Glutamate--cysteine ligase (Pisolithus tinctorius Marx 270), 682 residues
Amino acid sequence: MGLLYLGTPLTWEEAKNHADHVRDHGITQFLHTWDRVKDRTGDELLWGDEVEYMVVIFDDEKKDAKLSLRQTEILEELGRAVGTLHNDASLSTSVPKFHPEYGRYMLESTPGSPYTGSIADLLSVEANMRYRRTLARNRLKENEIPLTLTSFPRLGTAGVFTEPHYDSKDAKSSHSLFLPEEITNPHARFPTLTANIRSRRKSKVAINLPIFEDERTPRPFVDPTIPWQRDIYPEDPEAKNGAALIDHIYMDAMGFGMGCCCLQLTFQCCNVNEARRMYDALIPIGPLMLALTAASPIWRGYLADVDCRWNVIAGSVDDRTPEERGLEPLKNNRYIIPKSRYDSVDLYISSEWANKPAYNDTVVPYDEAIRNRLLSYGIDDLLSKHIAHLFIRDPLVIFSETIHQDDSSSSDHFENIQSTNWQTLRFKPPPPGSSIGWRVEFRSMEVQMTDFENAAFAVFIVLLSRAILAFNLNFYVPISKVDENMQRAQKRDAARTQKFFFRKNVIPQGYATPAASSPSSGSSTPSECSDCGMAPQVKERKLRNCFPTLARPPTIDDGLVEDEYEEMSIKEIFCGKGSAFPGLLGLVDAYLGTLEATPDERKQIDKYLDLVRGRANGTLQTPAAWMRSFVRSHPAYKFDSTVSQEINYDLLIAVDRIERGTLRVPELLPEDYGQPHLNGFH
Ligand code: ADP
Ligand code: MG
Ligand code: MG
Ligand code: MG
């Protein structure tokens, strides 16, 4: 999320007149950055996570769990607490950071300083996350709890779901039938984003998730909780006239999507080329990790037939006009745009030979003038196209005070567009005036209920990112297949039931499959091909950057792209298929063989990888699968897809107990998960 300015936000009618100004100066700012850092190299691996929380307030007497809208006070309180910690010289960890988020019940936390590549830092992630949660927990009221829930099951129900309660009649930014104005962070940026998306789109956003058809779900399902007769805003007839679909859960506001929580990871790369390589390699991984971390099966009080948040957020910020959505002929707009600003990545950007033009196989509109400007500045075709594609979007929030900037020292206009392109990966140029290098952010995962799981997925992805570099792995499949995988990933129980397009051979031509390491012997080499330069021969104590790239082979076996991939189960992709493909976990294991880890360290790492393996081979449930079965086996559930106040309360109590370790659920988490809770932090 960009910086929060205090200032006067422009309405959409005003802001649109400045769109070209922002784009123009945004590109100038990018070019300044480019001049400054295009040749920067040698940056070490630094990385960090972002964990988002919902503050839930429990009423044990009434058996009710609601969202607590005390974000502002809580953040002030946390700010004071963090300030005190800064003065505490005896503290061993750096002081965490807490950030506001879209929902007025949300918090985000990040480590105080990024992790380095040391194994000690790798193994500190869980404790770091736990420390942050404890800090937040200690600053809340006794009956408030920071839960890492991806979606709040009863957000937008007809009943009372926030504390305090507000009526949605006055939802002046979103015009929602379900969410009050007060659901949104009051900082001007957020209501303005909400209102300007709606104004630009020329209607409310409309999200329809298929309802989960249980034994007694009415068919057809016509949602009795939609206030069909409410005509406060001119758009309201829309709900009646087709925006709300039969057999679906209808949602009509940004808050339904941007009010979700997720888990994000950011990696600093050696240089711009390594960042581009990393970005590309992680693109096909995005949907797979979405499926493995699926954690949001309940929306507006109903069980949905999907398990993930992704399409809800995509729909919740979809500011495309009817012309841009291809519903009307282009007259006032410039492009037909296939996707929302929040969606999976559209373009691979690595300039390496392994990135064949055929992989970028979807329609990707771009701003021709911007592309030409970047090209004539000497930036290569793919990166120019990437930026020119991001820049087809309009800036949504402009503050009158910051329209004029010093383009050589600011990147605000660039970031205005960049950071409202919410894709599965984000390619982040170094910000001016800081020591930070080129970074890649991995953004598809749903937040998990426990810090053990959040740490496990963070550890897995950072290890996979190193395996990618160490073994020069090639994960390319056409972008259209990644898009298809994104849709499959969200289906109910996708990790167990769906197949995903994946590359058959991820090892570069002419190289051997890296051999699995053995934790006990600790002496295996990462590759049978010890002189190929693919992997370091001396074991290292650190996860690092700056791996050599592969030279283009004299002849490339250029078969059909269609022959390079096939449909595989998640189990095959992660655990291996046949003798040629050791699976992503096998590759991570081989990479671990290049590290010098003590048996204890290795054991801890393996605990995390075992969680990923359990999810992938189906022996462990995703949080979504567990939540669905919790609801369906609740004595008060009527098999009609409805998640009542009482079921919601019991579910969230169970979530909290699982997080605290007082409720053990073997189908969800291994018996011995987690480190003991940290005491002594205040
Ligand atoms: P945003 O919300 O814009 O994605 P945040 O500031 O919330 O960004 O989170 C950025 C993450 O990147 C944090 O986990 C932080 O620790 C981490 N980080 C900070 N500096 C670096 C760096 N130089 N390289 C990699 N990661 C970094
Ligand atoms: Mg953040
Ligand atoms: Mg965030
Ligand atoms: Mg982020």
Q: What stands out?
A: Residues 520-533, 677-682 have pLDDT under 50 and may be disordered. The domain at 26-465 is CATH 3.30.590.50 (Creatine Kinase; Chain A, domain 2). Residues 451-470 form the longest helix (20 residues).
